[in-house]
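Hey,
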Amino acid sequence: MEFFPIFLKLRQQRCLVVGGGEVALRKTRLLLAAGASLRVVAPELAPELADLAESGELEHVSGRYSPALLDGLRLVVAATDDAEVNRAVAADAEARGILVNVVDDAEASRYISPAIIDRSPLMVAVASGGSVPVLARSIRARLESLIPAGYGRLARFGASFRDAVKAHFPDVDARRRFWETVLEGPLADAVMNGDEAAARAEMEARIAAGGADRAGAVYLVGAGPGNPDLLTFRALRLMQQADVVLYDKLVAPELLELVRRDAERIYVGKARANHALPQDDINQLLVELARQGKRVLRLKGGDPFTFGRGGEEIATLAESGIAFEVVPGITSASGAAAYAGIPLTHRDYAQSVTFVTGHKQDGTIDLDWQALTRPQQTVVVYMGVSTAAELCQAFVDNGRGAATPAAAVEWATTERQRTVCGTLATLPGLMASHGIASPALIIVGEVVELADKLAWYRRSENSAVTIQED
């Protein structure tokens, strides 16, 4: 290793920044955040540095650098735009045994400042040895998305129980296993979601019980319209922690590849009139698995609360006293419309949008046609592939013109996406001739006219195909 990674305790330690510009300001912010007693030497200060000096948060030495300023210091940063001055600061600091960083000059530095993820007291630092700082910042940005702010609360929570856990679990391995169950389960989720009182009571009960794991929890996670890149960070994290996953036909195969590999997977179907498990059985299975102490992931295409029966499932969980969480996803209508280049609303075409389901539980079509056939409105029909002909005819019979633009979007947002554009009169035939099948959405309204102009999603010659009516 060219540099040894280390964390310094700088609270109330005397530190010096040489320079008064924007680079010096960035270093100053970090040192002040660490609680350093800071002095900045420069003939002039950038406006924000001047404000910090005026408020007493740092001491400004107006003038040029001199070696005498290094006396009694713990750490120095050389951040001027003069390479000779920076090298002189580094040489003087080295002679006195003071840690020194020269901005953009790793060779002259005794230490370098990494890219930092601050979840105090949890800290993560990424460095490239000073060679490619942009790469370190890029990696930090990726890690930021995987480490929610709640981890800081979790770290503080764990610290408050450290002595109690050590007293109850003198064996190191037993203590490690206990912490693993605490930091990756429902208790940790309660802390990060702000319910620390419940988490504290649960933690005390677990310690008293000798670490025995208590009931599990269920997570209803929206998997979005299909493209893995559209998952929320929370969804991805839960997918990688689950003990068992219940999924249905609307979940794209690519998404299942992101689930923890050793997790049990249970297919529950949910195709129209062909359910691998009836809804009531799914509800009870969620309860049973959670009572076994498992972290149960109910993975749903789109959003759990938009034609996903999430409300029915959590009602059963609530009645059974099972802890649960709902993680929203990008609903399929938004994903399909965006990737097909069809705005759901547009000032010149549609001032409202309505989502409906293409069939009731018994398979019949019974919609509020008076509301759905109003002008300047977009209607998105979920689960309407099998009844497309009846649906389009019903729109016409209830006053919507047969020439009204309409589209079907199959496997939206994935590389298998196909969009068929026509009218209410022609769309059913186009869908049949091109073999459009579920999962697909139907979009009705003048905004469909924009698909040819605004369609942007083209990953390969055979993907994201838009088929226009001849």
